[in-house]
Structures are given as structure tokens and as C-alpha cells.
Amino acid sequence: MALNSQLKDLILNTRVPLILNQFPLEWECFEGSVHDWCERFDQEATDPPEFELMALSDSRTPQWERKRTKASNLGMQQFLREFGVLEDNQTHWAAYQYKRAHEMPASCLKGIDFSCFGFPEHGNDFSLWLGSEQANTPCHYDTFGVNIVVQVHGCKSWLLFPPETPLQSTRIPYEESSVYCLENFYAPDPEKIQHFLELGRDAYHCNLQAGDVLIVPRHWWHYVEAMSTSLSVNYWVPLKVDMDLALDEFLVKHIVESFVKGESDQMKQYLLNPNQLEDISARPSELFAQFERAVQNMESRQSNRKLWETDYISQADWQSLLNSNNLSARPLEVMSQEEYKLLMNSNAKRFQSDTSPLEPSPISSTWELLVSSMCAPRVIAGMKREFFRRLRQSNTS
Predict the structure, then answer these.
(1) Mean pLDDT, all residues of the chain
(2) Where is the JmjC domain (predicted)?
């Protein structure tokens, strides 16, 4: 069996995160140093990159994207000079992340190909992430796909939890296909540290080094933080089982948009992630039309791209494949309680209740709880079941 076919089977059937240490990639755009890559970007980009800046002292809640400022006058090479090493007097971290392939100069993408993992039909549908030390993504899970993460330069800390972990899910801020939690793993509140320590029973962790690849299974929670200047690439493998969840996301989108229609810009900026601000449907009828198409696609099981099956081999066969000498993959194991406690206590030292201002909220806490309650996954699943019950009933009457 070809190596990439074996990897595909391993990736699609894994139930725990996998690490592929020092995977032999031959992606031409990354053959030089990160400085070479950044220099090429500055020379060839049509527009300068727009970096996000986040105050290190803003620590009382997760470092949501809505709290970050933009820096459009910061070039790639200047970023390396100013943020390449986080000095003691540094006040912010900086990042240019979640950038789709079409936003990048072609030479900065040359040779990137996920065929080596068994997925030739990726269609350049991947993202790039560049950030300084402490640049982070608040803890969340992706509603779609299996995530393949390739660490190109530097090191990133990945803290992961299984789907059933009792984290406090929220859809505020709303981002399509991401479900965040309220736990602040960047800077846990020392007064709430016991709650975080209890979560450690199911915590998985790795420091992903340059040349390593991480496989994040479907719906696994993850908090990601750069330990040094970091450059990585990821691809979400689209799954057939995700077609069912597309309806869930349309329902959530309708609920959230019904709350922001006609509201102030301040309200929209609080409820929506920045990348969603320009993606508000002009009329409810447009959203219903999208929902209707999703229902039709689900019933006919049609899609405009290749969707992959999961769980088509037994766990015994998967284990045998994992143990084969051809693959360098290993499953992550549950983090030791002592290591997890050290990590949480270390991050808790960042919490600054006196100097970090509490983010003003344009909505009441009751309203925020109502939105999160209406958008909770089990509530949305119940709405969907009721919709299809009525649909079947109407089709047979």
C-alpha cells in the first residue's frame, strides 16, 4: 500500500490527535529560512500584510479577535525585526493568521500540496498562520473537517481536549464553523484555577516543532499559542458526515443575524468575529434560500467538492496501520496531571485583574446568555430533528 494511502486511512480513522515527527515535506516555498519567505512576500505582495496586534496585558478574558487592533503598515521583514524575539518591554504580540491561499503571493505557496497525506483534491483550500511569541487562538473546536497542521518554522503549543469535555461553549463571538469556549487558557483566573485543573483529566498537549505535523480529529477542542515566531499551514479535510452539520451552522447563523439586524456597529463588533462582519445576509430570505439548498444537498448527499468517509476501517486495523514501520505517526497521550498543573499555574501568572481593563459589553449578560443558549449544539440539534420530523410528515401527507 502506498505511503500516502496509508496516511490517508490513518488520518480519516483516528480518534485521538496524531503527531508525525519530522515529516519529509518538499514544499519549495519553504526551502529557505523564514526570513527568505518574508522577504519574498514583501517583494511580490500586491498589498502590504495586515497584522493583528494584541496587548499582552489584556488577560481577564480570552484574547478574542474583536479586541485586537490592525497594523497595515507593518511589512513581513519589519515584523521579524520588531517581534522576532519578544523582549521584556514588549507590550503586544503580532500575527498574520488564518490567511487563505488566494490572499498570498504565488511564490509564497509554491509546492504546497497535501497529496503526500493522501488528499490530492485540496484545491489550494488551505490557510497560513504567522505569529510572534504568545500569539494565540482562543480555545474552540472546528465544526467541519479533520485538521492537518504542518509546522514550518518555530514552535507552537497545542492544548487539546476530547469533544465530550465539559467546557463552557459559546457562539459569542460568532464565527461560522467555529465554536468557542469561555475558558481563558491564555491567562486562567487564579481564583478559578480549580475548574481548570479538573479539566486536566482529559488534556492532551504537544509543542509542535518545525517539520512536525499534527492531526486534529473532528470536533476536538484546542487552544493554540506560539512559543516563538511561528509559521504553519493547515488544511481541513472535508468529510461526508459534515453535510449534516451544515444545517446546524445555517440555523446558528440565522439566530445570530436576527440579533444583530439593525443594531449598532458596536453591537455587531461584539457579537461577530471581524471576518464575519461583511458576511451578514442582506435579507432573511437569502439565508432561508441557503438553508433550503443545504437541505436538498443533504437529502441527495451531493456536494461540489470531494468529501471523505470516516471510520471505514476497524480500530484494530487502524492500530495495526499505526504500528507499521512505514509511518512515523504516534498518538498523543493524556498529559500528566503534574505537567498540566504547571502549565495552568504558569499561564495564570499572566492574569492581571488590576491593570487589565474589563472589556465593556454593549449587551447585558442575560442577553448574552440567551444567544449562547439558543445556539448551544444540543439545542440546534433538537431544532433540526423537529424540522425533519415535520418535513417527513409533510411529504407523506
Answers:
(1) 91
(2) 93-252
